[in-house]
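Sorry to interrupt, but I need a hand with the structure work. I would like you to pick a protein and set down its sequence and fold. Please put the record directly below this note.
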Amino acid sequence: MKRRGRNSIQASSPSLFNIKRQASSVQDVSEILEKDPVISLRLISVAKSPVYKGYGDVKSVQVAIPRLGFKETLSIVMAISSKSLYEVKQPQFRVVLDKMWGHSLACAYACKLIAQSLFLNDPETIFLMGLIHDVGKVILLRAFAEIPQEKSIDFAAVMTAIQEAHQSIGNVLLKRWGFGDEFSRVVSLHEGANFNSQTNQEILVVHLANMLTRKMGLSFFEWDGKDLAEVSSAQLLGLSPDAIGRVEEKVKEIIKEVAHLF
């Protein structure tokens, strides 16, 4: 996947969005995906995992797609494609980006599960929103990694600077890559300032998922010990502590089973 480079999401988008077309068949989508053997093999591996239970073995993309469904296939392929954004040669940055990848993937699945628990219309799109909500951080970290390092890096200072800039950078990137305004709004507003009853549900879902992954230890920020049900996004979404707890346990299960397959 390294050959895809930093624009892997952009490069993949035109073909992948064909998956959403109602007229697309399993054969049509298979032909698109089979052009990339790495994506094909990883998609099959995910489809074979216990998370996506089914009868019979999965040995081809044409078998994997019906098991997953078109929209689920799109989500997984986007995750596989975006993984290359988190790959750098410098060991010290690789550790940071590996952790950021784990955060983004867990946030994506948390978004999907929260959306499903609320019976929202398109959980797979919200999965993608969770997956790319921190793309600005990723690109900024990659930029730092490419600067020749003459001395040790103060990662605390770097992360503080990136935290301040990542929303505006991510917003610019998504617009350049052709994502819609709904994605830009999530990237711009997911940190959680001034939520109210008029805030889009997608933004609230991504914020809550972001906080959930922080509670799970999959974040650069320490969890403050607050009950997640008391977080403003959870209250506006109307999620109970039990519902949030079920999402957390399911995310843990999924990450354990599939994170290494991407």
In short: The chain has a mean pLDDT of 84. The chain has two domains: 1-86, 88-262. Residues 91-117 form the longest helix (27 residues).
